[in-house]
């Protein structure tokens, strides 16, 4: 950074904002840090009382904050994202679709631990909509060594961030429970699931009522799979009571059981499995009456065709307690954050 006379500043890069105050009209930056001074800017700068300016001193070993922000942006940007205009050395990414937002946590950490640069994102594995802000990035000083930015660029060959579009369209629901099957009580579970699926434009193309008979439930699941549905959802029969046979029925299909049980309340008795690439889930009774449960955390990933591992489910323990707030702000509250 060096000081020069304003009349000699054409082509120079400002190192600071220059504020304009018009009483009763405006107070704000007339020229932003990083602005390249033009001939027509000189009279304006002088009228603002700037006889001298601090400008960036050219150094081939250094990179200006605007250029560095673009480097960080390239590290993060994937398809389905647009960028904002660089402002005060900062650039932001915005989603261009509705989908599932993914963050490579390890690579994000590697960049941020380098110092003198930062990338801040919203929580990963959350639903985003077109126009939502995903991340912002900048360097901390006005200039940074080019060598350091080159080092950051080598951290990953694939973008740190991703927006996965929702792709599933067809679902099957297997409602279990002898009390429902025999008409002793009304099925109030299935309508809840249908409403949740509608949020993601998933169409229910198969529905069957079954008693607590594992053979009948297994047969119903196989029938649904033969219709080439994109997911199978089994409701009820998930506890450890002797009459609850849904986990056994799912296992008997030959599905790969990822996890029976999750560290989330409500939703501890949740089961996740895959038959090939098709998820088969077992939903505990809490999904029927609780506003938010483990199903709300898992469903967006299923709809985005994003496979879930047992370790990822285990990580839901931190933030996995729903506080039943009077006005639910899920997933912007603590429930479900951190995976």
Attribute tags:
26% helix, Molybdopterin molybdenumtransferase, elongated, 339 residues, transferase, 11 helices, MoeA-like, six-stranded mixed β-sheet, molybdopterin molybdotransferase activity, alpha+beta, four-stranded antiparallel β-sheet, metal-binding
In short:
The chain is of the alpha+beta class and 339 residues long.
Description:
InterPro entries: MoaB/Mog_dom, MoeA-like. Belongs to the MoeA family. It is an enzyme of class 2 (transferase). By secondary structure, the chain is α+β, with helices and mostly antiparallel strands. 26% of the residues lie in helices and 27% in strands. It has 11 helices and 19 strands. The strands form 6 sheets. Strands 15-14-16-19-18-17 form a 6-stranded mixed beta sheet, with helices on both faces. Strand 18 and strand 19 form a beta hairpin. Helix 2 (65-76) runs parallel beside helix 4 (146-153). The longest helix has 13 residues, at 214-226. The radius of gyration is 27 Å and the shape is elongated. 37% of the residues are buried. The mean pLDDT is 91.
Radius of gyration: 27 Å
Placed side by side, the strands forming the largest sheet appear as 15-14-16-19-18-17
Distance, first to last CA: 43 Å
Structural class call reads: alpha+beta
* Biggest sheet record: 6 strands, mixed
The total beta strand count reads 19
Percent of sequence in beta strands = 25-35%
Look at the structure and give the mean pLDDT. 91
Count of individual helical segments: 11
Give the overall shape, derived from the CA principal axes.
Answer: elongated
Contiguous uncertain segments of 5+ residues: none
Helix content: 25-40%
Instruction: Please provide the ordered H/E string of secondary-structure elements.
Output: EEEHEEHEEEHEEEEHEEHHEHEHEEEHHH
């Amino acid at each position: 950074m060096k000081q020069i006379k304003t009349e000699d500043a054409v082509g120079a890069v400002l190192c600071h904002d220059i504020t304009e105050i018009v009483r009763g009209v405006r107070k704000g930056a007339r020229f932003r840090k990083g602005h390249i001074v033009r001939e027509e800017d000189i009279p304006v700068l002088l009228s603002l009382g700037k006889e001298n300016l601090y400008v960036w001193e050219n150094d081939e070993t250094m990179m200006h904050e605007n250029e560095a922000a673009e480097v960080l942006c390239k590290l993060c940007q994937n398809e389905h994202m647009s960028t904002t205009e660089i402002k005060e050395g900062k650039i932001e990414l915005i989603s261009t679709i509705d989908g599932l937002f993914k963050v490579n946590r390890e690579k994000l950490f590697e960049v941020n631990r380098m110092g003198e640069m930062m990338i801040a994102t919203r929580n990963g594995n959350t639903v985003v909509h077109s126009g939502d802000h995903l991340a912002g990035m900048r360097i901390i000083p006005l200039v940074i060594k080019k060598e350091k930015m080159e080092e950051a660029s080598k951290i990953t060959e694939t973008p740190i961030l991703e927006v996965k579009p929702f792709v599933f369209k067809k679902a099957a629901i297997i409602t279990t429970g002898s009390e429902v099957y025999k008409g002793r009580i009304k099925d109030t579970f299935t309508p809840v699931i249908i409403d949740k699926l509608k949020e993601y434009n998933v169409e229910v193309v198969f529905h069957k009522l079954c008693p607590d008979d594992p053979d009948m439930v297994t047969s119903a699941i196989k029938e649904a799979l033969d219709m080439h549905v994109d997911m199978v959802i089994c409701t009820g029969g998930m506890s450890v009571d002797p009459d609850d046979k849904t986990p056994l029925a799912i296992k008997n299909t030959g599905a790969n059981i990822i996890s029976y049980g999750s560290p989330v309340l409500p939703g501890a008795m949740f089961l996740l499995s895959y038959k090939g690439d098709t998820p088969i889930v077992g939903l505990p009774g809490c999904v029927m009456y609780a506003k938010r449960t483990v199903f709300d955390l898992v469903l967006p990933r299923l709809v985005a065709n994003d496979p879930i591992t047992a370790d990822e489910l285990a990580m839901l323990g931190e933030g996995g307690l729903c506080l039943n707030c009077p006005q639910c702000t899920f997933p912007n509250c603590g429930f479900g954050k951190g995976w």
